[in-house]
Amino acid sequence: MKAVIPLAGKGTRLRPHTHLTPKPLVNVAGKPVMSYILDDLQALGVDEIVFIVGYLQDTIRGYMAEAYPSIKPHYTVQEVQDGTAGAVALARPWADEDLLILFVDTLFDADLSLSKTLDPSKGGIIWAKEVEDYQRFGVIVTDDQGHMTRIVEKPSEPISKLANIGLYYIRDHELLFKGIDHTLASDPGPSGEYYLTDAFQYMVDQGSLIETAPVEGWYDCGKVDALLDTNRHLVSTTRGGVATSATVEESDVSPQSRIEDGAQVLRSRVGPNVTIEAGAHVEGSDLEDVIIGREARVTGSRLRDSIVGAQALIEGFNGSLSVLDHSEVVAGD
Predict the structure, then answer these.
(1) What residues does 164 pair with on adjacent strands?
(2) Residue 140: inside a domain
(3) Number of helices and strands (H, E) in the chain?
(4) Within-domain flag for 228
(5) Please, what is the Cα angle at 302 between 321 and 274, to 5 degrees?
(6) Which of 195, 223, 251 is the last residue of a domain?
């Protein structure tokens, strides 16, 4: 089994942080968003991945070489942002076996091992999350056996509450690429893009049985406020705690927070939903719903709903901000 991960987008909803950092490498709870997915793939035994790259692609390549040397990567560049079908089409030269296709705008609690036990008569799996606000999503309509019959974007009527989360296993990869070819030869969607879900519709129309599978959790990482919400989930469940090499003195620290190696927290309040990354220094400050990047320095400040980049300097600021690596915000300057 191989994986396909489209990464070519510019991450405009996460600016300014994506001016310097590709969206998949923006940190949440102390790890790049993409690394959570890569760890799941390695645990599944997937060691060959096709990356569809574009914006800041050299940073992606460098990160993979350093952080995941055991993974065999293939890189192909999406020169034109023509949609998800166009992106996955570029993986064709390496698509000679079963495929997992993953979009890294979100994290998920999903059982990927279902791909190894799928009935031989089935063509693939689409993971989905039941939601109440179905009008915001593409939803999957199923038959009585739980097989996809169609995907409808942002329906006005409650035809389904199964939101498409962007996680797919395709066993019948040859039919998938026939579907992609058919999609790319048709008129684009309303946004001028070609959608991978239309290729799945082609597969279903040709008789392929694509099963739906539930996910326990689905966490958006594509916007600043959503990234902070996902940080909250992670630090309050699996990623919270104070590293043994961190220094915490005369401070009140919420158990729903994360303080990493070498960080210093002095005379401060660290409220819930806070990550203080390695080597950061926080002094005389009050933090809540905040991510502080590695080796950043925050003094005499009260921060809420904020993301502070690595090695940034914040002094005497009261409020919310979102600043790049190496930025300086000094009250009164």
Answers:
(1) 128
(2) yes
(3) 7, 28
(4) no
(5) 75
(6) 223
Residue pointed to by tokens 């019959």 = 149
Judge whether 234 lies within some domain. no
pLDDT value for 134? 67
Q: Which two tokens stand for residue 156?
A: 């006005």
Alpha-carbon gap, residue 43 to 280, rounded angstroms: 31
Instruction: Find the farthest-apart pair of alpha carbons in the chain and give their distance in angstroms, rounded.
Output: 68
Distances (CA, A) of 169 to 50, 61, 100, 104, 142: 14, 24, 4, 15, 17
Cis amide bond preceding 16, omega within 30: yes
Determine the structural domain holding residue 28 and report its residue range.
Answer: 2-223
The contacts of residue 174 (CB under 8 Å, 6+ apart) are none
Q: Calculate the dihedral angle through the C-alpha atoms of 240, 246, 248, 252, rounding to the nearest 10 degrees.
A: -10
Total residue length of the chain: 333
The amino acid at residue 279 is G
Residues of the chain predicted below pLDDT 50: none
